[in-house]
Write a structure and sequence with these properties.
By secondary structure, the chain is of the alpha/beta class. The protein contains 11 helices and 15 strands. A 7-stranded parallel sheet has the order 6-7-5-9-11-12-13, with helices on both faces. Helix 8 links the parallel strand 6 and strand 7. It starts with 5 loop residues before the first helix and ends with a helix. Keywords: Hydrolase, Protease, Secreted, Serine protease.
């Protein structure tokens, strides 16, 4: 949608937000929670910690031009810190330069919570936290046959909006997810060039081995009016594929944050149909970085039918999206609460699916129906 189409945007948001639960800007004890050690059941990558030093030390690291020198300075600072804290010296796996966060790697059986407690007590440390695992928010589809294919488009009055604008090729929407089917007939013309990046495998091929990201991408910007498949909300916007979740639909905060940082330098809108219940400073910093670049960040609220926050949706500055059904009621699975900003269609949503083998289903089809706040989120991103 072009910059001047604010009135159309407002009309569509009104349609999406006809729900039985209240919508307010998130206001919580989020920042207090950042300084509380996580419970033992929280899911995180074994032996991994995300660490940020206080500003002066961080600047001394990120000011280095070469990656090699930046790693050398990081290793030196981490070694000094670890010696003071009387913990083993870890490997510096990566530096998230844009936000000054170090990705540390200890042996898998290390007690990272105890190490984090010691690190946090050091005056040179801004924060230290586990490398939490985030996951997709897709609920199992109903057993009955497809019903009301793409009913969501008429529900948000997309047909009226298309009379005003059909999107703009200058608008890039980043799908930070399981990747995107990069040769799908109904997506190919609307993918950016280059197509994106794979932070799971560390290469420039963000192809989707799960199916979730391809489905999300199609809701946003499937090629439309081509006598093929499905219609996207935006006919002409471009999709940037950013793979941060593996083919089982899960990925670490380090990957998600790197994906957000990457997208922030290349896109105007960032779609995050993923999350987890643990707050994380690294995600908030990545969101801050993206917003500082002028990006709109949109994330799924979660599928637990609870007034429970998921992150990054509940991060400050993110548009948290809940899901509604065809009757404008809260979808049975959708999280709810006054921290959710807007709602959108999220049940029986028809969209693109990989044309190759993938982990979500044994069958290979170009299109399929899914439901979840993961599906509601791209309705907002497409607008």
């Amino acid at each position: 949608m072009k910059k001047g189409d604010a009135s159309t945007f407002c009309e569509i948001i009104k349609a999406m937000s006809r729900s039985r639960f209240t919508l307010k800007v998130e206001a919580s004890l989020f920042f207090l929670l950042l300084f509380v050690l996580p419970p033992l059941w929280a899911g995180y990558a074994p032996g991994e910690i995300l660490l940020k030093f206080k500003p002066a030390i961080t600047r001394s690291i990120t000011a280095e031009v070469s990656v090699k020198k930046m790693l050398e300075v990081s290793i030196s600072k981490v070694s000094q810190l670890s010696s003071r804290c009387k913990v083993d010296i870890p490997t510096v796996k990566d530096v998230l330069k844009e936000i000054g966060v170090l990705h540390l790697k200890f042996p898998p059986d290390s007690d990272v919570l105890k190490i984090i407690e010691k690190y946090r007590a050091d005056p040179d440390v801004e924060y230290a936290e586990p490398n939490y695992i985030r996951h997709i928010f897709v609920s199992p589809p109903p057993n009955d046959t497809y019903y009301g294919q793409q009913w969501g488009l008429t529900k948000i009055w997309a047909d009226y909006a298309w009379d005003v604008t059909k999107g703009d090729t200058s608008i890039v929407v980043a799908v930070v997810d399981t990747g995107v089917d990069t040769d799908h007939i109904d997506l190919l013309a609307n993918l950016t060039s280059p197509k994106g990046y794979d932070f799971v495998n560390g290469d420039s091929d963000p192809n989707d081995g799960h199916g979730h990201g391809t489905h999300v991408a199609g809701i946003i910007a499937a090629v439309t009016n081509n006598n093929t498949g499905v219609a996207g909300i935006s006919w002409y916007s471009k999709i940037l594929a950013v793979k941060v979740l593996s083919d089982n639909g899960e990925g670490s905060d380090a990957n998600v944050a790197e994906g957000i940082n990457y997208a922030a330098n290349r896109a105007k809108v960032i779609n995050l149909s993923l999350g987890g219940t643990m707050p994380a400073s690294v995600l908030q910093e990545a969101v801050n970085y993206a917003r500082g670049k002028g990006c709109v960040v949109i994330a799924a609220a979660g599928n637990d039918d609870k007034n429970e926050k998921n992150y990054p949706a509940a991060c400050d500055g993110v548009i948290a999206v809940g899901a509604t059904d065809q009757n404008d009621n809260k979808a049975s699975f959708s999280n709810y609460g006054d921290w959710i900003i807007v709602v959108a269609p999220g049940t029986d949503i028809w969209s693109t699916f990989p044309n190759h083998a993938h982990s979500y289903k044994e069958e290979v089809f170009n299109y399929d129906s899914l439901q979840g706040t993961s599906m509601a989120t791209p309705f907002v991103s497409g607008v």
